Amino acid sequence: MKKNLAAKNNIASMLTLLLIAALAVSCGSDTDTGADTTASGGEQNSAAGTETEEVTALEGLAAVDYNGHTFTVLAANDAVNTRHYDIETAGEETGDLLNDLVYSRNRAVEEKYNITIKTANDEYSVVSDTVRQQVQGGLTDYDLYLGDSHVAKLAAEGYFADMNTLDNLDLSNPWWSQNAVKSLTVGGKAYFMTGDINPTTMMSGGGLVFNKTIFSNNDIEYPYDTVKAGKWTIDAMLAITKEASKDMNGDGSMDVENDLYGLSSWCAAGPYAFYYGLGGMMSAKDGNDIPTLNWDADEMSTIYGKMYELIIAQKSYFVTDASKYDTNFKCFSDGHAYFNQISLLTIDRNLRDMQDDYGILPMPKLDESQDQYYAYVNAAANFAMIPSNYEDGARTGMITEALAAGAYDMITPSLYEVITKSKNVRDEESAEMVSIITSSIVYDPFYLNLLDGYSLMQEQLIQRNENIASAMESKRSAAEKALENLIESFQAIE
After folding, report:
1. Can you spell out the DSSP letters for 315-372?
2. CATH tag for 57-203+379-419 (out of 3.40.190.10, 3.40.50.1820, 3.90.1200.10, 3.40.50.1370)
């Protein structure tokens, strides 16, 4: 079983510390990254030697005058999750918290470097086409791209620069996800990366919400203490949901309007959230930082068996029809499910009208021996990418670093407030659960590159197949070949 897959995500360290201070909750801190700057909360000696002065991450970066350069960013949009809001704003403060935080960060970077940030967004397919046209044509209309896995896949075709080679950009700094750095590099090269620069990715961590009213009415203890004790496991969740799904109106069939379910979830998210939460990982790294296939039949069968029991055997509300996607949230918000699998990013939008109080939880562990809780981000999560034909690497590196450091200072500390606009979830315990989720996000290059076989568990659950071993073996050869081709493509980049 996988142990110590990834250290706690440094992106979340600042959020965690502020939550501790503001809400008196406790969560583990991150290891010192050795960054050559005093980040937010650090101290410098004053002239008198008795006072201290806080220096933010952005202030700690070198100041350079770029003479009014227009720094242009093209972001892939997302009609559902508006991920382009990582960089794009209304051009002014509007009262929307995320807009105003990003706007303030952008202005601070513009003023420090004497630049203008210009943004545009389009569908991921258009962004991908634009990257190809720009690089192939020797054009430099865009300094930075923000996009999901479909855009990031262009990295293997040589369209993006190794971010480790750009002056003024340091991926060891805490505003870059150290989990992502460890997982997404190939042979020490980083062609796409994420961190505080992509707040919507941090908020894309998969978790659970539970209905406090249903729990209280059934004399079930809220699982917060179980989580904090490291005992929130899939068996603990299964015990709660064992007989939860009920035909409440006695008509002999289950329907979302009238009956009660232990869990509601969406087929393109739930299986992945549980798989990674239970310690699964489809790829690993060898000693040369090269991804390898990690399909252990016993491990995958054990994890899948628990998922099958929860989602299929216990008759959860499992949405497989894309046209009914929203009903998995409505089932929960209308009071018809104990749990809902959801990302932090979508909580406010999907549950803002919910009448019952609810709480947030991380995904369960496989068992208590698992070293920590894990959260995944889906393939729609945002990454930062710099075109391989960049015009001025030192300038692009400096401004990209500043956008990340500025977000670390000005956006990340307020993410809990962004996530929990609804008064129904405003509690100290959920604040601690959010910090656990955001500090435990893992990045699987096999999944994020959408390689052949990544959707295996999803497909088997949709087909209601109880065993996965034979399906896994039938896909193994294709999966190995897909990963081999990906690595060869990266290694061919000059």
Report:
1. T-EEE--GGGTTHHHHHHHTT-EEEEEEEGGGHHHHHTT--S-EEEEEPPBSSTTSSS
2. 3.40.190.10
Instruction: Tell me the per-residue pLDDT of 257-313, one tens digit each, with 9 for 90 and over.
Output: 889 999 999 999 999 999 999 999 999 999 999 999 999 999 999 999 999 999 999
pLDDT at 211: 97
Q: pTM, whole model, 2 decimals?
A: 0.87
Q: Give, for 209, the enclosing helix (H) or strand (E).
A: strand 206-211
CATH number of 206-376+442-478: 3.40.190.10
Secondary structure element (H or E) that encloses residue 144, with its range: strand 144-147
**What is the C-alpha separation between 270 and 376, in angstroms, rounded?**
10
DSSP string, 244-278: T-B-TT-SSS--TTT-BEEEEEETTTHHHHHHHHT
| Structure-token pair, residue 95 | 């009262």
Asked if residues 386 and 319 have their Cβ atoms less than 8 Å apart, the reply is no
Domain boundaries, the chain: 57-203+379-419, 206-376+442-478
Q: Band the pLDDT of 415: cuts 50, 70, 90.
A: confident
